[in-house]
Write a structure and sequence with these properties.
Helix content of chain A: 10-25%
Order of helices and strands of chain B: HHHHHHHHEEHHHH
Shape of chain A: globular
Radius of gyration of chain A: 24 Å
Strand content of chain B: under 5%
Largest sheet of chain B: 2 strands, antiparallel
Helix content of chain B: 40-55%
Strand content of chain A: 15-25%
Number of strands of chain B: 2
Radius of gyration of chain B: 23 Å
Order of helices and strands of chain A: EHEEEEHHHEHEEEEHEEEHHEEEHEEEH
Largest interface: A-B, 84 and 74 residues
Structural class of chain A: alpha/beta
Shape of chain B: extended
Distance between the termini of chain B: 70 Å
Strand order of the largest sheet of chain B: 1-2
Oligomer: heterodimer
């Protein structure tokens, strides 16, 4: 490198947004439609769902038959590029603690492949401390967010049913798909066990979204994780928010732009963002009246902690010293098996939508249990598209179950073996719990003082441990799953032998990819980084609209709330700019 | 080939290069030489493209002799039958050569397993597995095709099945991997997907479980479901 220089982007923006997933996409959409000039920085590659297509491919169109790579850990056809370890972008962990960190590196981030599970938080979810004394209440309640949930439902589309449940609020739902065969079995079995089963709530257009001619109804290929390139029937930030935002002419996207720090002036106000372009390895600065972080809970915290100045010696938005703290993920535990009644089943297309057609919202009262927070249950099974790993371990089936009246030895070969593969196809079933963890101060990420990534940016060091609250919840999940599996005559083939020695199969923190809490909001500026408008207490033109702002994350997947809060914060920004308050 | 001769061949390393000395017939050789490398058609990011190019640049992993053996084994595992074609017709051997390059963890178990098989075959029939006649091959396969499994029945009794003779476990471990790779390669091919009857991956309107299937399993949709679910 010869001369080292920082290039300043000449254009001045109203807002610079870091990250293009659910939070950043929504902010860009709202601001651009209000006429504001927006610069959208994305650390990963440019991505166009209508050009970069994996939808409707057959397994043999991937030489590895859909198997995963380090760059696509969810399989070759998965739409999300990123992973658990990124080349040249390390992170560290304090010894004896765990955190698996997923990072997407593409336009739209993980919205390109997510499960589309779109659950509103309920009234109780914002006020948990008032109920059980643990963690903290949000500075806002359901009534503050409800209008935005309503608008997100109508803008983006979600199917489901109004069930009148106290803590799983009704919404504006499109019609859900009918349950699949194994889902009918699950519904009966779970109901017997006292577990409520209702239609799932996924942001997939099972019918045309009123008022939207750009997107079409679902064609039931079951491949939402590949992103709906052809019909735009599911929610992803590029299809649903960024492309319409671009049409306003008010948005410039800078891809391959790794944010280094938020720039501030003498008064401590944000003036823009400095970033390194991965394309030419040159340092750039881009200026904006407002800076909005939506880089993911941990990346946003990292950016703030790395943005030190005279006015903000502890990092930006961190006078409270809470940035990075209260990091938490959903809990997870799962179980799988087979349904012998489905051996040799009739074939038909049961792809359905990408994901479950029914689910179980939390159905119990924690006051009567030995763990404080609830979980919901997700289900799967049936006749899916074969991919790498298909039919692995046939000996455990054909050595155990009679095939067409014949008892066989495990394994084998030849025409008899081919008969076995057909016999057992489509008999799988499984379920997983996704629960609420308690955010605590001692679970955190911080800047590792001795390690930088390949761009010279100091990296995160994690320090997270589950407590008994989460472990006992996983124990309860496993007991419930066993009962449901038993009630429908399923044979458990994995996840059935977990016990205290492995925390009942509780997933490692981070593994469920619902990280939140690191830049939390609150009324007390000493205990929170943001106020109730997602605005930094100590820097009024800085906002954080991703999972970082969450005080707690319920047992609900967080995307729908990220979208609602980002919409809310964005409209607040427009107002405040008009009033010249920021 | 007598016993002493085969041992001499092993000592000089002759079977390492396989085909030239004890190896496969010319037809097998031609087949592997002509087999095209897989093509990557998915639109990928530059670093993924670079990785995929690097795999192809490594060239074939298996020797011609090894590929001949893999092809014979794959067609024993998945032969042509009334419903569908064979593993080799579905290009399973080519898939296996690619996947061990993409997943290096399979390389030693496969290469070592193939060598174990040839050594066992030499000891037993004084020929490599590929040079054995079909009857001899099946005698060997019968010794390695049935791994031991253990499970509990409904009454909680431990049941053990499978048959592995002393010293044959390496062969059983290898054949199990070979069966898994063969089946995965086959059932993700066009022939195999059709065979197993996967009916999806096409635009349609999901209207629930077919009526005859609901009847077969004695389940039904509720009035609520029929009213609230998407209608076709």
């Amino acid at each position: 490198m010869g001369e080292f220089q920082v290039k300043k982007q000449p254009k001045k923006y109203d807002a610079v947004i870091v990250g293009s997933g659910a939070g950043g996409g929504m902010a860009a959409y709202i601001l651009a439609n209000a006429g504001l000039k927006v610069c959208l920085l994305e650390a990963g590659f440019m991505y166009d769902p209508q050009k970069n297509i994996t939808q409707m491919k057959n397994p043999w169109e991937s030489p590895r038959r859909g198997a995963s790579t380090t760059m696509r850990p969810f399989g070759d056809f998965d739409a999300c590029y990123g992973g658990w370890s990124l080349d040249g972008e390390p992170f560290t962990k304090v010894k004896g603690t765990e955190w698996d960190w997923w990072r997407a590196r593409m336009l739209g981030g993980r919205t390109n492949h997510w499960g589309r599970i779109s659950l509103r938080f309920g009234p109780k979810d914002f006020k948990r401390k008032s109920i059980d004394g643990l963690g903290d209440d949000w500075p806002i309640g359901y009534e503050d967010v409800k209008p935005y949930y309503d608008r997100v439902d109508k803008l983006i589309g979600v199917f489901g049913t109004n069930e009148g449940l106290e803590n799983d609020p009704d919404g504006f739902f499109l019609r859900p798909p009918k349950p699949r065969l194994h889902e009918l079995f699950i519904k009966n079995a779970a109901t017997q066990a006292g577990v409520k089963v209702i239609p799932s709530r996924l942001s997939i257009l099972t019918e045309k979204l009123p008022g939207n001619d750009d997107r079409q109804a679902c064609i039931f290929c079951g491949q939402c994780n590949r992103n709906c390139s052809y019909y735009k029937a599911d929610f992803s930030s590029p299809n649903v928010l960024i492309k319409p935002a671009l049409k306003t002419g008010n948005v410039d996207i800078v891809a391959n732009a790794m944010a280094r720090e938020v720039l501030t002036n003498k008064e401590g106000l944000a003036t823009g963002v400095s970033y390194i372009s991965k394309e030419d390895m040159t340092e750039y600065q881009v200026e904006g009246k407002v800076v909005i972080l939506a880089a993911s809970a941990c990346e946003s915290a990292r950016l703030l902690l790395n943005s030190k100045s005279q006015r903000h010696p502890n990092g930006l938005a961190n006078d409270s010293n809470v940035v990075g703290k209260y990091l938490h993920d959903s809990t997870g535990a799962a179980m799988g098996g087979i349904l012998p009644q489905l051996f040799d089943r009739k074939r038909y297309n049961e792809d359905g939508v990408g994901g479950m057609h029914v689910y179980s919202p939390w159905w119990l009262d924690n006051k009567k249990l030995d763990f404080p927070r609830g979980y919901h249950i997700e289900y799967w099974g049936g006749m899916g598209q074969p991919s790498y790993g298909f039919s692995w371990g046939i000996e455990n089936l054909n050595g155990k179950y009679v095939v067409k009246g014949k008892e066989k030895e495990p394994g084998g070969y030849g025409a008899s073996l081919k008969e076995d593969y057909r016999h057992f196809y489509g008999c799988g079933v499984g379920m997983a719990g996704r629960g609420e963890a308690i955010p605590i101060e001692s679970n955190y990420c911080e800047i590792d003082p001795g390690t930088v990534d390949k761009f010279g940016i100091p990296v995160l060091r994690f320090n997270v441990k589950w407590t008994d609250h989460e472990i006992l919840q996983a124990k309860h999940m496993k007991e419930t799953f066993k009962e449901v599996m038993h009630n429908m005559g399923a044979v458990i083939t994995w996840g059935g032998n977990d016990d205290a020695s492995n925390s009942y199969g509780l997933s490692k923190p981070g593994e469920i990819i619902h990280e939140a809490g690191t830049v939390r909001m609150g009324n007390d500026a000493k205990k929170s980084a943001l106020n109730k408008w997602s605005q930094a207490h100590d820097c009024k033109n800085l906002f954080c609209v991703d999972g970082g702002q969450f005080v707690s994350q319920a047992d609900k997947n967080i995307t729908w709330t990220i979208l609602a809060l980002s919409m809310r914060a964005s409209e607040y920004i427009i107002d405040e700019l008009k009033k010249q308050n920021i | 080939m007598d016993r002493r001769k085969s041992l001499k061949l092993i000592a000089t390393g002759a079977i390492a290069t396989g085909a030239a000395v004890v190896g496969c017939n010319t037809e097998d050789k031609k087949k592997t030489a002509d087999a095209a490398e897989p093509t990557f058609n998915l639109d990928r990011n530059p670093d993924e493209v670079a990785y995929e190019k690097s795999i192809i640049a490594k060239g074939k992993f298996f020797t011609e002799h090894e590929m001949a053996t893999i092809t014979i084994l794959a067609d024993i595992i998945i032969p042509k039958d009334d419903v569908s074609g064979s593993a080799s017709e579905a290009k399973v051997p080519e898939f296996i050569d690619f996947i061990v390059r993409d997943m290096p963890a399979h390389q030693v178990p496969m290469r070592g397993g193939l060598r174990w098989l040839d050594m066992h075959s030499l000891n037993r029939f004084e020929k490599t597995f590929a040079d054995c006649d079909s009857g001899q091959r099946i005698q060997i396969v019968d010794e390695i095709a049935y791994p031991e499994i253990e499970y509990k029945d409904e009454k909680g009794n431990t049941i053990k099945k499978g048959k592995v003779k002393t010293g044959m476990q390496p062969g059983v471990t290898f054949f199990t991997l070979m069966r898994n790779l063969t089946a995965t390669g086959f059932y993700t091919s066009a022939i195999g997907v059709k065979d197993v009857g996967y009916a999806g991956n096409q635009a349609n309107k999901w209207n629930g479980v077919p009526d005859d299937v609901l009847k077969q399993y004695n389940v039904a949709y509720t009035e609520k479901e029929l009213n609230e679910c998407v209608k076709v």
